[in-house]
Amino acid sequence: MANPSAFRLSLAGIAAALLSTTAHAAPVEHKQAPGAMIASAAVVPPGNTLYFLSGATGSPIDPKDMESPDAFGDTEAQALSIFTKMKAQLADLGLTMGDVVKLTVFLVGDPKLGGKMDRDGMTRAYKKFFGTADQPNLPTRSAFQIAGLARPQQLIEIEAIAAKGN
């Protein structure tokens, strides 16, 4: 029979080796084509923690007015509100917008645009938070036109996944 104390030492060595390999996770890699607005892929190596942010909608321009047709502004204003809130939520988690690896964007057709989604308005807001000199990382992204959100004035909802090494 094998020496029990040698077996314990072996397990301790294996555990230490495993912990040392995950203690310093490799950084997340954002792969993008030159000139692209979004990453074509994001590689999240083992040892990184994933953070899933629930879908968020914009805040009303005036908190006292949640019912008027323009209470939340246009798609760009709503997207700016969402990204601003997202940035604060990430900061509370010790993260930045640069840690975002995936965005899913739900756009409602804007009645002022003949029922078409305002992808350009969303993109103008997006470019203030991603791919900037201060924050060059681009997440992967999907955008969909949907029939509606919780309030008829809401034109956009965004959810995010972020990743960061431990």
Brief description of this entry?
Residues 1-25 form the signal peptide. With 166 residues, this protein is of the alpha+beta class. The protein is built from three helices and six strands, in the order αβββαβαββ.
How would you describe what is shown here?
This protein is α+β, with helices and mostly antiparallel strands and 166 residues long. The protein has a single domain, classed as 60s Ribosomal Protein L30, Chain: A (2-Layer Sandwich), CATH 3.30.1330.40. It contains 3 helices and 6 strands; from the N terminus they run H-E-E-E-H-E-H-E-E. A 4-stranded mixed β-sheet has the order 3-6-4-5. A two-stranded antiparallel ribbon has the order 1-2. Helix 3 links the parallel strand 4 and strand 5. Helix 2 (75-92) runs parallel beside helix 3 (119-126). It is globular and about 50 Å long. The two termini are 40 Å apart. Residues 14-22 have low confidence and may be disordered.
